[in-house]
Amino acid sequence: MPVAAKTEQPGPRPATGKPLRKRNQRRRRISPQAGRALEILGHAIEYLTDEYMYSGGTFCAQDPQLQAIQMLMAFNRQIYFECPEVQSLSERFLALLHLHTA
What we know:
Structural class: mainly alpha
Number of helices: 3
Largest sheet: 2 strands, antiparallel
Mean pLDDT: 80
Shape: elongated
Helix content: 40-55%
Radius of gyration: 18 Å
Distance between the termini: 32 Å
Number of domains: 1
Oligomer: single chain
């Protein structure tokens, strides 16, 4: 059974400490295969980032370790954004009534 996940974009935080919500946040339907791939990539990214920080690496764009982390993060985003968006409740309701918004 596919899982719906919410698109979270980190943004500025107001004084309350809660992130500001963007109007275009959409949930995505993540298949079990995509979910497993995202999980594996997330663990790999976390592991490589931890190793890099513990080794005392300096941030340089040509660093192969950083390039590997960036590549894994790009694959992670690609898989996530290939998952279909879930319609909002209002969109489903309007579709049920055969009403279209322009």
